[in-house]
Amino acid sequence: MTELLAYTVLGLVTGAGYAVAASGLVLTYSTSRVFNVAHGAVAMVMTFLYWELNVQVGLPAWLAVLLVVGVAAPLLGALAERVMMRHLSDAPVSTTLVVTVGLLVMLIGVAQAIWPATARRVEPFFGQNGFKIGDTFVTFHDLITIVAAIVVAGALYALLTLTRVGIAMRASVDNRDLLRLYGARTSLLSSLSWAIGSALAALAGILLTAVVGLSYFDLTLLVISAYAAAVVGRLKSLPWTFVGALLLGLAQSYAVGYLPQQEWLSGFRAAIPALLLFAALLLAPQAQLRIGQIKGFSGVPVPTMWRALVAGVVLVGVAAVVPFAIGATWTDRLGLGFIYGIVMLSLVPLTGYGGYVSLTQLTFVGIGAITVARLESASPLALLAAAGASALVGVLVALPALRLQGLYLALSTLAFGLLMDKLVFQAGFAFGFNGSLSVPRLELPGLKLNSEHAYLVVGAIAFVLVGLAVLALRRSRYGRILLAMRDSPAGCATLGLNLRWTRVRLFALSAGIAGLAGGLFGGFRQTVAATDFQLFNSLPLLLLAVVAGVTSVSGAAIGGMMLMLLPIMASSRPELGGLFFLFIGVVAVGLGRDPNGLASRLFALGRWRPGSFKSTVPHTTGPGRFVGAAPATAGAHAAREEVHS
Questions:
Q1: Are 44 and 216 in contact (CB under 8 A)?
Q2: Is residue 267 part of a domain?
Q3: Local structure of residue 299 (DSSP, 8 states)
Q4: What pLDDT does residue 491 have?
Q5: Assuming Cys at both sites, which of 89, 166, 206, 425 could form a disulfide with 530, CB separation 3.0 to 4.6 Å?
């Protein structure tokens, strides 16, 4: 009984911290319709600031908490809403997610730049002093955490039900435009909600740092676990959010205390938040199909297949010649850049054409690398097996999530990535007991591919072939259907198009391309480890894909080279590692609203006279108004062909 009480108290304390964090997330989403992926990063940065004020400056704990939670965090939240989020309430989910992921990476960069990676400790409130409940010792810090959650719940209830401001916040959930007609300042309400949400994130970070310590990624990931509680509340119900948080905390605590102490179960304990998140998403009510885009979308010029083929031949030729001028080191790096480019090509049909967001694309890359390593084969058939294995896993991910749309679908990929990190990649059957695998390099009859020069050419050829396939997909009927689905899923459904299975095929295709890249990546590195495919590594990949241009093959090439340069710059100037994260985040926030990215800007610079590079694909100029034939119209014709074929 004493043991049960001890684990119950521990679970309630952890759940109370989750409840504080999740309530802030729900508040910001319900008033702005922007899901703040950076909520955990806000908590992390504010906790570092609390440590600075309390430990370095020497302020009393109560004063440091007051300055951080009452001043710094609200200012950060209001600033983020004003500068980044205000015009995103009607934006597609893919845009809002990319911008907030950019904010997350930017805040991690800020923390790394200001506070270098050294051991730090935040003392609990009142140290280890406390009291006993029976034989169970409860610290005052634990008591404060539980009381803080109760106070936050009561304060938010009073705010949202008893005050005019709170009632206006609730009204903004249903119809912001109608509320604006009644004279309410919806922008001010949104800023206030983001300020309160950031303050709650800061408070949760300070309370929970006693559990995981002061770490850039661990603390961010711990608060990300609160996503599960927020989804239990459907991102709008604070009471159910608190229930989900307490269930999550108790489940984790009881798993630590009562599950058998076996190696494979240690990963299960760590995966409980992801399991709860995935279960809550699957039990969520089916979302209604969106009728049409509120903002128009302008695509990049799509070249003819002949022009793309010529460009591909030139690219392979350059890859074959340039190693003679740059040396072995840069030859190796360029080969890695082409492989990263193939990974980003997997996002072009999924995110660029279909409008869906995958927050865990490197997981499929890891599956491809593991497949080639376990087959112990260097033949091209091993690469096809890697693509097939990843595509199969992509189908298995998409099938349970057939009912999900938009944000919930993106969060399901996040939950899948966390599950793979904890249950598969950390297990001995995946990367062995030493945590790494040897992967053979590709072998072709009559060709030796052992040199970095040869593998660079292989990477370039693979990128060109996959790029041509993606371009052919874009120009096909299926590509037009994807554009139509992105513009108006409801319109496609009225034409009889099976949206669910179209999405399953899309996820399988994207995962298969990523798996192919994983097989090439493993052969390039020759040794791979679980750390190569962690969830956090997928976020810079997604950001750079969008920054470079996730709607085009050329954007994937640019993004792959940019991602290749990051570790080089970080290793050459380790003291500036945080600034590199900061730079990525700033650029992603600035360009995240434009999925065409740098590629479209480079195309614009290349137009030496008006009309010298006219798009062969029509583009929109606004809601429902198109130049030529709209993507939705083209997709509608393709949908009709699909129905009647």
A1: yes
A2: no
A3: P
A4: 75
A5: 425
Cα-atom radius of gyration of the chain, to the nearest Å? 25
| Nearest-5° Cα angle at 532, 456 to 587 | 80
Query: How much is the pLDDT for 592?
Result: 60
Per-residue burial over 121-140, b if 16 or more Cβ lie within 10 Å, else e, is: ebebbeeeeeeeeeebebbe
Do residues 225 and 346 both lie within one domain?
Answer: no
Please state whether beta strands 620-622 and 527-529 pair in parallel, antiparallel, or not at all (unpaired): unpaired
b/e map of 350-385 (b: 16 or more CB within 10 Å)? bbbbbbbbbbbbbbbbbbbbbbbbbbebbeeebbeb
pTM of the model: 0.84
Domain that holds residue 122: 2-258
Please state, in angstroms and rounded to a whole number, the distance separating the CA atoms of residues 424 and 268.
Answer: 10
Based on the domain organization, do 574 and 448 belong to the same domain?
Answer: yes
Task: State how many domains the chain has.
Answer: 2
Contact 359, 541 (CB under 8 A): no
Which residues, in sequence order, are CB contacts of 300 under 8 Å at separation 6+? Answer: 549, 551, 552, 555, 596, 599, 600, 603, 615
CA distances for 358 relative to 376, 434, 442, 555, angstroms = 29, 29, 28, 17
Same domain, 254 and 325: no
Is residue 427 situated within a structural domain? yes
Exposed/middle/buried for 391, CB within 10 Å: 0-12, 13-18, 19+? Answer: buried
* 429 and 550 part of one domain: yes
Q: Is residue 273 part of a domain?
A: no
Q: What is the pLDDT of residues 232-259, one digit of tens each?
A: 888 888 889 999 999 999 998 888 888 7
pLDDT of residue 352: 87
Are 299 and 553 in contact by the 8 Å Cβ rule? The answer is no
- What confidence score (pLDDT) does residue 642 get? 46
Torsion on CA atoms 408, 342, 569, 525, rounded to nearest 10: 110
Residue 611 burial (CB count, 10 A): 6
CB-CB neighbours of 413 under 10 Å: 24
> Quick one: 210 and 91 in the same domain?
yes
**Please, what is the Cα angle at 15 between 62 and 45, to 5 degrees?**
50
